[in-house]
Design brief:
Blueprint lengths: L1 H55 L9 H23 L7 H13 L2 H13 L3 H31 L1
Helix pairs in contact: 1-2, 1-3, 2-3, 2-5, 4-5
Length: about 160
């Protein structure tokens, strides 16, 4: 008799666990749509900002692509500062990071244009400048993330 009662409890526990998992998955599914929406909205804003900068600071083939460098450095400073603010201050709204970090800053910064710009420099007869641009951008952007994080930390501590 004890075995039959234990089997019923095990079945009940499994059914309860399954129902709980299904409810959790349904909540996660509902949340995904709002995250996708804010990432898309942020991405549209960031992309429009990047386009505006590229229009304001155009460059010809063989010239250093200042607009691409600028948006990547600004985006790196911003992501460094943002992540400190989000992780080391009050609990932010759950959509803030997807909207700003993934959406706006992901749309603003650009690896693909950076790579194409480097290839264009090399094709225009400036291979040294292309390599300098490739290496320099990575180093400057890493320093920018660090500067943004350190600067934000100083503000948060005060």
């Amino acid at each position: 008799m004890a075995r039959a009662s234990r089997a019923v409890r095990d079945d009940d526990t499994q059914a309860f666990d399954q129902a709980r998992r299904q409810a959790r998955d349904a909540r996660r599914s509902r949340r995904r749509w709002d995250v996708l929406l804010v990432v898309g909205l942020g991405g549209a804003i960031g992309t429009l900002l990047r386009f505006a900068v590229s229009e304001a600071l155009p460059h010809d083939a063989g010239q250093l692509p200042w607009s691409t460098l600028l948006v990547n450095v600004v985006g790196c400073v911003a992501i460094g500062a943002l992540l400190v603010m989000i992780t080391e201050t009050a609990i932010p709204h759950r959509l803030l990071r997807p909207f700003v970090a993934v959406g706006v800053l992901g749309g603003l910064t650009t690896f693909s244009t950076y790579a194409v710009d480097a290839v264009d420099l090399a094709r225009a007869g400036h291979p040294r400048l292309a390599v300098l641009y490739l290496v320099g951008t990575v180093l400057v952007c890493l320093a920018a993330v660090l500067a943004g994080a350190v600067g934000a930390r100083r503000i948060v501590v005060q």
